[in-house]
Amino acid sequence: MNKAHWRIEEQPRLAAALSAGRIPALDGLRAVAVLLVIFYHFGFSMVPGGSGVLIFFVLSGFLITWLLLAENDRYGDVSLAQFYRRRVLRIFPAFYAWWLLTVLMLLAAGKRLPWPHALSAFCYASNYYNAWFGDPNTAFSHTWSLAIEEQFYLFWPFVFIRLRHSLRRMTFFLGGVILAVCLWRWLLYFAVSARQSWFYASFDTRLDGLMWGCLLAVLLKSGAGGRCRMMLCRHPALMFVTLALFFGSACPGHLVFEGYRDAIGLAVEPALIAALMVQLLNWSESALVRWLEWPALRWLGRLSYSLYLYQQLTLYSIRKLFAAHAVPVQLAAAVTVTVLLAACSYYLIERPFLRLKQSRGIEPDKSGRLLPQPATAGSRV
After folding, report:
1. Could you tell me if 308 and 31 are in contact, meaning their C-beta atoms sit under 8 angstroms apart?
2. pTM here?
3. Do residues 172 and 121 touch, judged by C-beta distance below 8 A?
4. Which of 135, 220, 235, 294 has CA 20 to 30 A from 80's CA?
5. Residue in 93, 100, 27 with CA at minimum distance from that of residue 313
6. Whole-number pLDDT of residue 283
7. Burial class (CB in 10 A: 0-12, 13-18, 19+), 12
8. 25: left (phi > 0), else alpha (psi -120 to 50), else beta?
9. What average pLDDT is seen over the chain?
10. pLDDT per residue over 314-335, tens digit each?
11. Residue 2: Cβ-neighbour burial (10 angstroms; 0-12, 13-18, 19+)
12. CA distances from 322 to 40, 44, 310, 312, 318 (A)
């Protein structure tokens, strides 16, 4: 076989992980992502909370594309109606319950309600509200990332349908979009001197994070990029190299120059997350990765959507309430209340609506994701 066309079955660990009834490590990785956000918003400024959001972006792009690939494999087409039905049932009930509760709590407490920001969140447009006005640091500030994901859902399925007959064309398209977004950010930074909030929150400057996840799914499905996968997965210790590069970029990158994150970090960090995901999947049975399968961590991963929703509402309030206590006590109380609220949201709102999801007869995994099989030796890109 031509070494330039190594297929995924030549990496049996990776193939087994992708063929499992539930893709391992990803729920745990989702839990890590939301914990990074929680610790940062609690007040630990050295924790890269933005990296948690970026992990969510790459995971979302990967899992949504994996779902679309599965449906296309099974039926030879993709139903946009079913796709949006699944997304609405997955996202809207918990989100609008949180939104209504937040508005009512602010009104009941007699606090000023930032209606423009609240309405932009309601319409999934708060990313451009934040980008244009700067983050006003309200209870709705964190919805910028949810808005970006919702805008991605309005964009990617239509493109996928147009390109679904050729994974090669899809690969080139995704690579082109990633490159275009990077060039656009550089233009905004070096030629326009755009405000930092635009780089951080707008769809046009953050789309490549999601596209890296899409590209990873397509490459794993097609079997392309075998040489790179083999290099990444040659030894489990290489995961520490990827992590060092990632956190070396995310944490002290601003010491290189002030605009490092906007000009460089947002370009390289999603690629490193995608590389790390390949390594985690390949070594999911090793002792270095098995901790991501701890039941408690997987449970937090399943709660991650509601955890992300409610952490903005709870962390500051609980920390203020426990201000007379030591920081560890404040943190424990804040995390406990956030988890309890998220669990209520998950079991009382998310789960009942998730049961209504229909996937045209395709059985989802325990996370509600559809799992296509990896490419065989005879499959074409």
Report:
1. no
2. 0.91
3. no
4. 220
5. 100
6. 96
7. exposed
8. left
9. 90
10. 999 999 999 999 999 999 999 9
11. exposed
12. 18, 16, 18, 17, 6
354-361: long-range contacts, CB 8 A cutoff, minimum separation 24: 354/89, 354/90, 356/89, 357/85, 357/86, 357/89, 357/90, 358/82, 358/85, 358/86, 359/71, 359/82, 359/86, 360/71, 360/74, 360/75, 360/79, 360/82, 361/74
**Structure-token pair, residue 247:** 């956190």
Residue 171: partners with Cβ closer than 8 Å, 6 or more residues away: 215, 218, 219, 222, 224, 381
* DSSP string covering 306-320: HHHHHHHHHHHHHHH
Q: What percent of the chain has pLDDT over 90?
A: 81
**All residues at 6 or more sequence positions from 340 whose CB lies less than 8 Å from its CB, including other chains:** none
pLDDT at 2 over 60: no
* Alpha-carbon Rg for the chain in angstroms: 21
| Overall average pLDDT of the 360-373 stretch | 44
User: What pLDDT band is residue 127 in, cutting at 50, 70 and 90?
Assistant: very high
pLDDT tens digit string along 51-61? 999 999 999 99
Distance CA 171, CA 240 (A): 28
Could you give the CA distance from residue 298 to residue 291 in angstroms, rounded to a whole number? 10
Number of other CB atoms surrounding residue 8 within 10 Å: 25
Distance CA 69, CA 87 (A): 16
pLDDT value at residue 365: 43
d(C-alpha 200, C-alpha 290), whole Å: 33
